[in-house]
Amino acid sequence: MSNDAHNSRRRRSTEQPTLKQVADAAGVSAITASRALNRPDQVNELTRARVLEAVERLGYVPNLVAGSLASARSRFIAVIVPSLANSVFIEVIQGLQETFEAQGYQILLGNTEYDLEREYQLIRTFLGWSCSALVTAGLRHNEACRTLLANCDKPIMEVMELGEARDLNVGLDHTEAGRCMARHLLERGHRQTLFIGARLAGDYRAGMRYEGHREIFEQAGLTAPLLELERGGLDAGAAGLERALAEHPDIGAIHFANDDLATGALLHAQRLGLAVPQRIAIAGFNGLPIGQHVTPRLTTIRSPRHAMGELAATAVIRRLEGQRVARRQHDVGFELLVGDST
Fold it and tell me: How far apart are CA 105 and CA 97, in angstroms?
């Protein structure tokens, strides 16, 4: 059986949990369960807690669209990203929006701030408003969210990285991207290299790139030290360079988790009078324009973010229109941009 046929059958056979099932699981009446969800001031805290636990365990989504509208097909797509301050996600959103709007769909945007519990609440709300499809940035979700997605009978597109998706997947191999940059640094003779990232528990894709980086260095018989910062951005990159020089005085190169950090460090190196790459080599990830307009030009890895959004939206539209999706998973790849900073 083809992948598309398998997923089509999975969606047709999925039955959404009902309010009565939630009530039975919580040991209360359907009326009490409804009050716990809609008028929590009318039930005691213990009862409400039991109902909410049953809601999460079963993956129940209340339909927030009233009357005849509930059976009508909506024309909006829920898009959920971890940050609206990061230009990486903005470019993906642009690709999604342009492609969806060309076919008469609108996007409804949610921002998780790298909080998986917030992601769960957003997805639950959007599904309750009967969105046509769902696009999420990433494959990692908390248990309650995974239950929601497993029960969902709408197209689900997970973007940014590759992996075992619930339905459709467009992204790139971040571990391989980390290996690619590590190989480049070793080829340039940088055997004492530090990896610097920020909040890797939330930005787990940067953590995947570090794992690829570490693998290559350890294969070469070298250590792969990691410095984790509490925040990102240009200022954090500058502070990270100062910490790196103080805590690892012998390093000859820094592999930053993204271009914002790397560019901040590169500019600060100039202020400190440090020659790049002669004293310290600097590399990044994402291929942002800012890194290509500084001197020396930043060595980085470019990800095709706008194209990622376009490809993801095209696959979702084909699924919504009942057309065959030839590839459930699409690897958009990446490109090593060798600048003058390494």
Answer: 8
- Which pair of structure tokens corresponds to residue 75? 């024309």
**Burial (0-12, 13-18, 19+ Cβ within 10 Å), 48:** buried
51-83 pLDDT tens trace: 888 888 877 766 654 443 444 457 899 999 999
Domains and CATH numbers, the chain: 19-62 (1.10.260.40), 74-172+306-332 (3.40.50.2300), 174-302 (3.40.50.2300)
102-138 confidence digits (pLDDT tens)? 998 999 999 999 899 999 999 989 988 889 999 999 9
CA angle, 190 as apex, 304 and 211 as ends, to 5°?
Answer: 50
Tokens in use for 129? Answer: 């408003």
Give the predicted TM-score (pTM) of the model: 0.79
- Tokens 């509930």 correspond to 70
- Distance CA(212)–CA(176), nearest Å, equals 6
- Listed in sequence order, the residues at least 6 apart from 159 whose beta carbon sits closer than 8 Å to its beta carbon are 92, 135, 136, 137, 138, 169, 170, 171, 308, 309, 312
Given the DSSP bridges, would you call strands 300-302 and 329-331 parallel, antiparallel or unpaired? unpaired
| Lowest mean per-residue pLDDT among 31-40, 91-100, 288-297 | 31-40
